[in-house]
TrEMBL record:
Domain Enoyl reductase (ER): 11-345
Annotated InterPro entries: ADH-like_C, ADH-like_N, ADH_Zn_CS, ER, GroES-like_sf, NAD(P)-bd_dom_sf
Cofactor(s) this protein requires: Zn(2+)
Lineage: Bacteria, Pseudomonadati, Pseudomonadota, Alphaproteobacteria, Hyphomicrobiales
Keywords: Metal-binding, Oxidoreductase, Zinc
Pfam families, sorted: ADH_N (PF08240), ADH_zinc_N (PF00107)
Family matches, as PROSITE patterns: ADH_ZINC
Enzyme kind, highest EC tier: oxidoreductase
Protein name (database record): alcohol dehydrogenase
Biological source species: Devosia salina
Listed EC numbers: 1.1.1.1
Family recorded in the similarity comment: Belongs to the zinc-containing alcohol dehydrogenase family.
Length: 347
């Protein structure tokens, strides 16, 4: 099969070619619950750039060369002998983690904290290819309304945004405020999830006019351009107190300190984006009683819930499509901020 393969790290992302489009062996059924999926779409994620930078070397057992791509959807190509409920040709979306389901975390539904797991595109070969090996427990059948290429990025970007926004929505009341920092590939999904799940007023913050325009279309009540006075603008909008919830899809640079400053006392700051460092004096934590909440990719049931919202037309993805052989261009466009929404590779 053809695949876009990562052969070496590029810590400064200076090269014009990150991956090599080449022939590699097809994945094979090895276990009774294995499934081979013919890729219909593979999302291009900022995590892929972090992998290229080498940031994941100490957090996953990445052995080069290997194939990135952890946001995958397509059609079942082959199934293991113990697989039931699925057949060849079924359109599916893949939860990003492959687990056995036997450990306590899995039995509680928290597969992302499984004692043993494979994460295609992160620690094993992923979906920047024509075929992907995954497991039955990771598969969700797609309704006829949703095409694999249109929903692939939901498996990480959408699911992570959904998990964070679902947490926030449980305590947001009508008349309260929620701030979304960064309205790119994750943030524009987050705005839609918040709009669908709560009645709080949504403030979108971004430095890109195009991103803010997209945020407005996705349901944001107010937009703030990040030109240096965004904290003051948000505080003025919220009566000087800050928002009850701030969801930070950037997680680096000044966004962290600004996000905390936008969070009112007894409010919650949800950190989704990463790459920066969180520092806050303990006395400020005590006197403000702010809550800082980390967010990993969501659960299998949460991906089912997100697909229900997509099927109902309440959440949609803004995507830019690339051929698999153009994976380098997609990665470069993402790196240089030219993709508004999510990039998708199509074999």
């Amino acid at each position: 099969m053809k695949a876009a393969v990562l052969h070496e790290f590029d810590e400064k992302l200076e090269k014009s070619q990150f991956v090599v489009y080449e022939d590699v062996p097809d994945p094979r059924i090895e276990g009774p619950n294995d499934v081979i999926v013919r890729i219909g779409g593979a999302g291009v994620c900022r995590t892929d750039l972090h992998i290229i930078e080498g940031l994941w070397r100490n957090n996953s057992d990445v052995q080069l060369p290997y194939i990135m791509g952890h946001e995958n959807a397509g059609w079942i190509e082959e199934i293991g002998p113990a697989v039931t409920g699925f057949k060849v040709g079924d359109p599916v979306i893949c939860h990003p983690l492959v687990t056995s389901g036997h450990c306590l975390a899995c039995r509680r539904g928290n597969d992302m904290h499984a004692e043993e797991s494979a994460f295609p595109g992160v620690n094993v070969n992923g979906g920047y290819a024509e075929l992907l090996k995954t497991g039955q427990r990771s598969l969700i059948k797609l309704p006829k309304t949703l095409a694999p290429k249109d929903v692939a990025p939901y498996t990480d970007a959408g699911l992570t945004a959904y998990r964070a926004c679902k947490k926030a929505a449980t305590h947001l009341l009508p008349g309260q405020y929620v701030v979304v920092i960064g309205v790119g590939g994750l943030g524009h999904i987050g705005v839609q999830v918040l709009r669908a799940m709560c009645a709080a007023r949504i403030i979108a913050v971004d430095r890109s006019d195009d991103a803010l325009e997209l945020a407005g279309k996705c349901g944001a009540d107010f937009t703030v351009r990040a030109t240096g006075d965004q904290v003051e603008q948000v505080l003025a909008m919220t009566g000087g107190h800050g928002a009850e919830a701030v969801i930070d899809f950037v997680g680096e640079g000044s966004a962290i300190s600004e996000g905390l400053a936008m969070t009112r006392n007894d409010g919650a700051y949800y950190i989704v984006g990463y790459g920066g460092k969180l520092e806050i004096p303990t006395i400020d934590m005590i006197t403000s009683e702010k809550r800082i909440i980390g967010n990993l990719v969501g659960t299998y049931p949460e991906l089912v819930e997100l697909m229900a919202l997509a099927d109902q037309g309440k959440v949609h993805l803004s995507t830019a499509e690339y051929r698999l052989q153009d994976a380098n261009q997609a990665l470069l466009d993402l790196h240089h901020g030219k993709i508004h929404g999510r990039g998708v590779l199509i074999p």
